């Protein structure tokens, strides 16, 4: 567990207000052995998301997916965009219904 940003086993980066903790032994290319944790603003070190770890199963082992720092930044971009859409700052991609043509009743 990471306690502070002074942990010598991790390299820390800030991206769009999020903290990315990348283990010092990570490689640049995508790998299931990379350990990257994304912390939302003001949530470090208590609540983080482990990039590339699928723990959606109710039982059995967790599944690791090859990932790298670009995947961590893509995840943050997705979370930020979703938050903006929910806040109504960005128009949703759901098309509006077309106006009816023909007689009005």
Give a quick set of tags describing it.
105 residues, alpha+beta, 1 helix, 17% helix
Write up this protein.
- By secondary structure, the chain is an alpha+beta fold.
- The chain has one domain (10-83).
- It contains one helix and six strands.
- It has one helix at residues 69-86, and strands at residues 10-15, 18-23, 36-39, 49-50, 53-54, 63-64.
- A four-stranded antiparallel β-sheet has the order 1-2-3-4, covered by helices on one side.
- β1 (10-15) and β2 (18-23) form a beta hairpin.
- It is elongated and about 70 Å long.
- It starts with 9 loop residues before the first strand and ends in a 19-residue tail after the last helix.
- Assembly level: single chain
Number of helices in the DSSP assignment: 1
Q: Percent of residues in beta strands?
A: 15-25%
Helix content: 10-25%
SSE arrangement, N to C: EEEEEEH
Structural class: alpha+beta
As a whole number of angstroms, the C-alpha radius of gyration is 20 Å
Shape label: elongated
Question: Major β-sheet, in short?
Answer: 4 strands, antiparallel
Regions with pLDDT < 50 over 5+ consecutive residues? none
Look at the structure and give the mean pLDDT: 86
Number of domains: 1
Strand order of the largest sheet: 1-2-3-4
Q: How far is the N terminus from the C terminus? A: 66 Å
How many beta strands in the DSSP annotation?
A: 6
Characterize this entry briefly.
The chain is of the alpha+beta class. It has one helix and six strands, in the order E-E-E-E-E-E-H.
